[in-house]
Structure formats: C-alpha cells, structure tokens
Design goal:
mainly alpha
Length: 572
Amino acid sequence: MVEYKWIALSNTTIGVLMSAINGTIILISLPAIFRGIDINPVEPSSFQYLLWILMGYNVITAAFLVTFGRLSDIFGRVRLYNLGFAVFTIGSILLFLTPNTGDLGALELIIFRLIQGIGAAFLFANSAAIITDAFPVTERGKALGINQIAGLAGSLVGLVLGGILATINWRFIFLVSVPVGILGTIWSYLKLKETGGTAKGEGIDWIGNLVFAGGLVLLLLGVTYGLMPYGTSQMGWTNPYVIASLVAGAGLLIAFPFIEKRMKYPMFRLELFKIKAFLMGGISQLLFAFAFGGIMIVLIILLQGIWLPLHGYSYSSTPFWAGVYMIPMMLGFVIMGPISGALSDRYGARTLATVGLIIVGAAFIALSTLPYDFNYPEFAAIIFIMGLGSGMFGAPNTTAIMNSVPRMHRGSASGMRTTLQNSAQTASLALFFTIIIGVLAATLPTALSQAVTEAGAPQLAPIMSKIPVTSALFSAFLGYNPVGAILSTLPHQLTASLSPSTIATLTSKQWFPEAIAPSFMHALKISFYIGATMAFLGAIVSALRGGRTIAEEVIENDPPSKRGVNNEGNRV
C-alpha cells in the first residue's frame, strides 16, 4: 500500500504542475489570445489588458494567500486545498468559453483569470503545509524539491503546448488545465486527509482580513496603473488616482500590524517573525522574488522585440521561439531543485540558499555585460547558471521556513511566505517595466524620429516621436511588427506618400530592433544591476539566518520521538 506522504506529494505536485503550465502557456500564447479577441496593440488603452492578464493573477493571489492560509488552520488545510482545485478548474472552463471579443472580451478574460487566481491562492496557501505535515523532518527538503521540479516541468510543458495550441485555436490554451484540475479535484477529495494540528474553534479576524486584503489590492492597483500612460506622460505615477491608491494602500498596510496586535485570533501570526529562521527566510524570499520576479518577462521582451527579429525570425513566430530560448533557465532549476532540497535535509538551508542567491546575483551582472546582438550560447549559459542558483535557493529556503513554525500555524506560515513572494514578484515586474518605459520615454522618440528620417520618411518623424513606448513594446511582445502596426493606423494619404522601398525598410525585421536596441539595453542594464543588488542583499540576510531550526511537533498523544529539535538539540 502506498504511504500517505507520497499520496500527499503527488497530489500537491499535480496542483503545482497545473498552475505552472497555466502561467507559461498564457505568457507564450498572449499573441494568439489578443488576436483571437481582436485587440489592437497600438491603442494606448490596450496596454492595461496586457498588464492585468499578466499581473492580475498575482495581485489576487497575493491579496488572499494569508487569509486563506489562516482559514485553513481553522477549517482544515485539505478541505480548502480541495476547494482551490475546484475553483481553479471553474476559472479555466470560463476562460475557454469567453463569449465576447474586443474590450468586453478582454474584461471577461481578466475576470476569469482572477477567479483562477482565487483557486490558486487556496492551492498555494496549503500545498507546502500539506507536504510539511505529511513528511518527516529528514525528508521535507527532498519532497519540496520534487514539488518544485513539477513546477518547472510544468513551465516547460506550458511553453511547448502554448506554441502548439496557439496555432490551432487560442481557446484550447485554457482547456489544458481542465482535465488536470478535474483529476486533481477528485483525487484530493478521495485521498487527502487532515494530518496537521489545526486551530479549530478559533474565530476569524474579519477586520484584519479586510484591512490587509484592501491595502494590498490598493497598493498593487496603484503600481499596475502607474505603468499606464497618463495625459502627456508615458507613465501614470502622477495620476491622482494612482497616488491616492498607493497612499491608501500603504496606510492600510502600515496600520495592519497595530490592528492585529489587538485581535484575539489574528490572521497574520506576527509572533512567527520572532522565530529567526522564519524571519530571515521570509526576507530572503522577498528579496529573491523582487530580484527574479520580472526577469522572465524582460528577457522574453528582449528576445521577441530585438534579438529574434535581428536573426531572421518573423514577428509572428517570436513568442514561441522566445519561450524555447528561455528553456536553459528552467533546466537549471529542474536540475538543482531536488539536489539542493535533499542536501538541505542533511545540512540545513543556510549555506545552500546563500550560495544560490550569490549565483543569481552574479548571473545578473553577467547579463548586464551582453550586447543586444549577443551570441546565444553565452546567453544560454548565463541563464542556465541563473536557473541553477534559483534552484539552489528555492527548496532549502522553503523547507527552512516551514520547519521553523509550529504545526498548528503552518497554513498561516505557508500563506505568509507565498504572499511575500507573489507581492514581490508583482512589484518586481512593475519596477522593471517602470525602468524600461522611463528610459525609453526619454530616448526612444528622438531615436525613432532620426531613424525614420534616415530611412527616407521625414514626414513620419513627428508621428514616431509621439508613439507611446507601451504601444511599441506591447506590439513586439504580442508578435506584431510594431512599425507595421503603426503604419496601419495612419491616414492613407500619409502612407501613400512613402515610396515602396521606404516602406520595405521600415517594416523589415531589422529596422525596429536596431532603432530601439541602444535605449532598451541601457534600461535593461539598470534593471539587471537592481536585480543583482537585491540578490546579494538576500544572500546577506540568508547567511544571517542562523543554524537549522525545527519547531516542536507535539500534537495530542505524540511520543517524544516525534518531537522536533533545533540544530543545538533544543526544542523550539
């Protein structure tokens, strides 16, 4: 008979696999999705749909993870984990059925993605806790490492499936998650059981829930819309609504810990931060996610908008090939994840996690030295090493965090850990976009005006100087030739004044990448330096986490042999 711990691992692995496939299959299939719902990428308002489909999922999961983790401690982790599978599957079905096109269709996609995000929040808040409950201390790192392999394997599957299904029908992209979700829902209801100590009988902190979720949503909304053009500005950081959202969100989050101290049953277990391993592991996770969260999308934009067209790939094929060329990073993670997880079971997390973050920081520095027309083997080697560093950090750090907390608070701890990660990922994406858009806004209009003049179309210079940076990036990211998309919106009299040779030059695969590359690479280097700084700071925090800490695991009628100790032999 199969031991329960393997049943728990296999089921939570299915959940991670489904979520990972969903993440990359969306990322790589956005061109087909936006063409399917007939969205014009040049329209300035279209950029908000891209942001919300990319970031809305993380916003909603970050907002509810701690709440759902706390509810899981009260009502049972397995029960709410099962609910997460069902909700995620319903969201996937709704996405497949999206009935409308245009702006309404985009809005429907966003809403259905948010439903998926609610289901994912239930899954993320409980999967690490379920594994921690099911596995003994000596095997948790290995189990969490295997779980992470599924996540990266799912990412690889998503890239390939997205490239294939996008050429058939964009709706099939969302259908992939449905059979996996149905299987996981049925299996979890039949096979998973409650094994961890729960906080039954405790009340729900409704005030804390509302303040935390409201503050986080307002803050992330402000960050998201800060990336949107406002008036004559390329970004919306001066928009009064953005400022109000940021201030209100920050105010609620600042007030939150003071509110929690007055609650009898707080949703956010502030006392967990008194555990050094939990505090340092959480800060390390936050800094890593802040450094790493936006790197995938930024590198894909680099590949799709510049490198691939320069090497002869058509704009329509760049989304798929960008995914393929990012595979070395995921392979590095897949290789190192289980190895580092197993090693952390024997030696603890401090050395492995710290070295992993140093490797990630060094890889950022190495990326900053590349020219825009780089040699791919060199690029592949750097992102592979970055993947190795990420894998070396991930499983040991998660294991250290989950080992350090009492059994009855693992749902809350898992939700808090993942909230830090998802919030930082969203902030990272926003920061990277802000840097890129800000630098391009200052340099791109002049560069494009000069480039069209040199190409024999000076009459287009005033128009090119006013093209929103977001429109140009959005077009390239969605597999459109940005210049072709821009020309299609101009009056016929203006385009008719251009000679065929000039039009051929402007719409060639090389013209736009070469015009945008110097400004874009300058922005990327700034982003890479910030990523490296965050990774190195995370390494310092990780090194200060202290020795291995394992919380006492006493539940009713437990024999002394099941009680956990720290690395000095003391119960914690």
